[in-house]
Specification:
With 149 residues, the protein is α+β, with helices and mostly antiparallel strands. It has two helices and ten strands.
């Protein structure tokens, strides 16, 4: 009986926490979002990350210096130093221009500058909010990826 009551209290606690966070969003209180930037000389590409384990594991590794390469003439890729989480990840995703993703089988981050078809193993991390046109300038060069304030 006591075990059941503790269990019920624990469930209630987590449900209430979810309601508080939802209520904050409803009432216009902004919950802190993960934003990052890729520095390309004087220019920067701004990215808003989704709140999921994969995105958080990338955010926790910042700042980074990474080599960005073109792949398949539709995406720019880089390899973070540590593997990103795939916890609770969907089976796949259909990326659009500006989407930032993880390709889980290879462990690389891919930023799409062209729409692409549904791909198994692709996990959406977020999207480019500014500077998508700069992606064409990224080719076989080392850039800095940092948290944006």
């Amino acid at each position: 009986m006591r075990k059941q009551q503790r269990w019920n209290n624990l469930i209630s606690f987590f449900m209430l926490g979810g309601l508080v966070i939802s209520s904050l969003s409803i009432f216009g209180v902004e919950v802190e979002k993960m934003k990052i930037k890729i520095l390309l000389g004087e220019d920067e590409i701004l990215i808003s990350l989704n709140d999921n384990p994969s995105s958080r594991s990338l955010y926790e590794q910042l700042p980074l210096s990474v080599k960005v390469e073109d792949y398949a003439s539709n995406e720019k890729i880089f390899h973070p130093p540590r593997e990103l989480s795939t916890l609770d990840a969907p089976v796949g995703y259909e990326p659009k221009v500006g989407d930032v993703t993880l390709y889980a089988p290879w462990g690389n981050v891919a930023i799409f500058y062209k729409n692409f078809s549904y791909s198994k193993g692709l996990i959406k991390l977020g999207e480019v909010t500014s500077g998508v046109e700069l992606l064409s300038k990224l080719n076989n060069q080392v850039v800095k990826v940092k948290k944006a304030q």
